[in-house]
Amino acid sequence: MADRSNLKSVSQSAMGVPESLPRVVGLLGCGVIGGGWAARFILNGVDVRLYNPSPRALERAQEMLANARRAYRRLTLAPLPTEGALTVVGSLADAVQGVDLVQESAPEQLELKQKLLATASREAGPATIICSSTSGFRPSLLQAKMDYPECLLVAHPFQPVYLLPLVELCAGHRTAPESMERAAATFRAVGMHPLVVRKEVDGFIANRLGDAVAREALWLVHDDVATLGEIDDAVRYSWALRRAAMGAYRLNGGADGMRAYLAQWAFKWPWSRLTDKPDFDRSFLHKIAEQAESLSLADPLDIPIEQKRDDLLVAVLRGLRSQDYGPGKTLARWERGLRARAFSAELTSGSGPLRMPTLTLPPDWIGGHGHITDLGQLELCRRACGNLLRQVGIDDDYLSNYGSYRDVEVRLSLLGTLTAGDRVQVLTHVLGVDKMRLRIFHVLAREDEKEPIATGEQVLIHVDAGTGRPSPVQADVRNRLQELARLHAELPCPARAGARTGMKWLDDT
Prior knowledge:
about 500 residues; five-stranded antiparallel beta sheet; about 15% strand
């Protein structure tokens, strides 16, 4: 048997597993924000205790969780951990006692929030971080009645919480610095980008910017300059695209560019009505509602609007991830953490082969006979191989500096039928590894079925990043692969594994 006694700490240190991932969190409130928090934590493997007096709290949380699962399947191929448990509790005390973090997401009513947070502070004790999802209340107001105000800060997310990575952190007058540090580490561990607000201010940063845009948009509608649809087009076809990628001020050329920008444009033209707000009389409210209804009728969706929104956000995030920039960089960091946790779990448990995230077969992988093509089957094997290599440390830096593995030989066997829409899981066994070569075996099956539908065996050779010629794999990656090979050798050998290949296998010496 392989010695696993010290593997967990070694693998976590080497692979960067986030040490601040909470075991269990307590959630107070389950609207669109509280439900989004539940989904983000649960899909990151964190247990959730949910307190909400509404009888529909569990139903709402499960609906949000289903949408989040659907989005994550499209967002990443990194292996998600085993989902955390969702428990709806009957009292606030049950939600907050013995948890690592409390997240309050009650309606925006100051007295209600102060009462909830005071009770949570008393019941949770002095060691528990308590965060409020408030959109605008200053944390010093929320701390007013708490026994342990040093543990309270604002952690303001954005809808949908399970997809949008920003969380604004704002301290009150009595918030301890270590509370901010612990909260930031926790949110990073679940794939978020904590942004610290330097000073207490109503509405924080992003909401104030959004409010300015919304105010100007409403004036344009009020004055019959534009409709809601035209404003949407003006935003999404122009600066929204640029700012999604680069932010607001990256293109102004540094200090000199910003000086020129301010001299030419800032407050020079009477364009804005940000100091005023239109009167929301019956006529104006009717105009806004009528235009919103027209937008919905003009662009009907074949799927629920929340799912369409998620699909569009996933597409933007994946595009930014391909550039390793902005929110895409946050996504890539979260994925590295997921792979590190999966690898650590594999080493410590030795419970089975590596499991690639389940994939839904697209129509273009299906041939004229209605079944998966050889190319589609090969793509599944290659994705499973990529999943393995990323987990053992072949990331972008490794690819640039050292190289990667390339196929020498691939053997495919189709034992059944796979069609468009089938949910397929791939299990990967490491059969052998030496200084330059790797041999792996894949078993393809439908989700929740044990019988294999197809298999694939690959022999790969490591090549240098610069020359493209065979070269030794780096020692740390090689050691991880060898440890997986030892663990997988203890498992039952999958049927058809070890078929003769044209390349003689040489054990490492």
